[in-house]
Amino acid sequence: xxxxxxxxxxxxxxxxxxxxxxxxxxxxxxxxxxxxxxxxxxxxxxxxxxxxxxxxxxxxxxxxxxxxxxxxxxxxxxxxxxxxxxxxxxxxxxxxxxxxxxxxxxxxxxxxxxxxxxxxxxxxxxxxxxxxxxxxxxxxxxxxxxxxxxxxxxxxxxxxxxxxxxxxxxxxxxxxxxxxxxxxxxxxxxxxxxxxxxxxxxxxxxxxxxxxxxxxxxxxxxxxxx
Length: 226
Ligand SMILES: C[S@@+](CC[C@H](N)C(=O)[O-])C[C@H]1O[C@@H](n2cnc3c(N)ncnc32)[C@H](O)[C@@H]1O
Hints:
single chain; alpha/beta; Rossmann fold; disordered N terminus
């Protein structure tokens, strides 16, 4: 079994184990199929939480890394004074993002790179914030991605994570069940909880708040405390 063929498990020094179901090749293949229709199908329903996340960036945030930037659907939301670097595994999604940047003349978008969020090439503390919108439930290795975002964000900076995280009980559990087929379309791992991400070292959870679809989508705000 190669590392690409195996869904990873991370535990030990880097926090509790998080098992995921999607592998890197699955992600690239799945999003090659979704890229042509992604914005039409998944744009509006997930839009409110994207805007909430960008609005949650502290005033004066100068440079942001968006991991899993996809088609770049969130890029027009950033303030013009905030420089943004977007990365994603899927060349097909990135082609859309590059076209959007050109068509909308988004001068604050510094670069769009094909890159694995679990292996960022950026130096330590290169960004004031990192965003992961609807990504942590898709990446093959969420703990590693959190560790990489923590590494490239300066101490005191932010990591903002948007997504649907598993709830143990209550209305969110019912909504999650109802939307399970929708999540499956995107290969979502429905086992990750906010608590699992918050238990990883090097970050402090500042807030876990509803960000869309009646609280089904959450915004997790972390401060980097390395
Ligand atoms: C559900 S889409 C979200 C796209 C966008 N952030 C949004 O708000 O619509 C998930 C994205 O994560 C990307 N992705 C999945 N695993 C990745 C990884 N390991 N590194 C970088 N991007 C990844 C996929 O290619 C896809 O574009």
